[in-house]
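Q: Please design a sequence for this.
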């Protein structure tokens, strides 16, 4: 059994308390350095890092496995810490009416949905679940939505003309 002074002499492994340590297997601990095997790499990829640092391992994960979605785990309880705990609070967000209008219009236009989508009971039900500040719901029918689209189009068109005029003037191509 180790005495208290021997326990103090051994440095603690930062690796063991690291939230991404589950992607590595501990191979060797020689006191100053730790050797680990990456479980994501094909073959037997061995890496070395200082006992009190995970910098080399972070660099490896970012460089070799950047395209993977890495999941952090609390090594003390060996559970996924990204899943909500019973005590975790719900994330609340509020959109302004203008933000919601813009998002809905973008969705309908980009997905090339029919304008009467805004009259669909199911679509209205989805919108009613989104908390917003100010006036409650966007449009009462497809006619008001079409009016909103026309207004947005005219604003965008005038902004583009203004930007184009500014860029033409800067290039020296004045009429």
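A: Design:
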């Amino acid at each position: 059994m180790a005495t208290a002074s021997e326990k103090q002499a051994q440095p603690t492994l930062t690796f063991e308390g690291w939230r991404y340590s589950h992607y590595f297997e501990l191979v060797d601990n020689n006191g100053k350095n730790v050797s680990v095997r990456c479980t994501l790499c094909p073959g037997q990829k061995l890496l070395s890092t200082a006992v009190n640092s995970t910098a080399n391992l972070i660099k490896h994960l970012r460089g070799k496995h950047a395209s993977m979605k890495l999941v952090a785990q609390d090594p003390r309880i060996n559970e996924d810490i990204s899943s909500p705990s019973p005590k975790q609070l719900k994330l609340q967000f509020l959109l302004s009416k203008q933000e919601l209008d813009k998002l809905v219009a973008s969705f309908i236009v980009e997905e090339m949905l029919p304008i009467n989508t805004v009259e669909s009971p199911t679509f209205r039900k989805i919108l009613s679940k989104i908390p917003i500040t100010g006036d409650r719901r966007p449009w009462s029918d497809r006619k008001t939505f079409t009016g909103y689209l026309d207004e947005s189009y005219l604003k965008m068109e005038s902004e583009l003309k203004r930007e184009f005029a500014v860029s033409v003037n800067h290039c020296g191509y004045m009429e």
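Q: Thanks. Anything notable?
A: The radius of gyration is 29 Å. The beta strands are 24-29, 33-38, 46-50, 73-74, 79-80, 95-96, 132-133.
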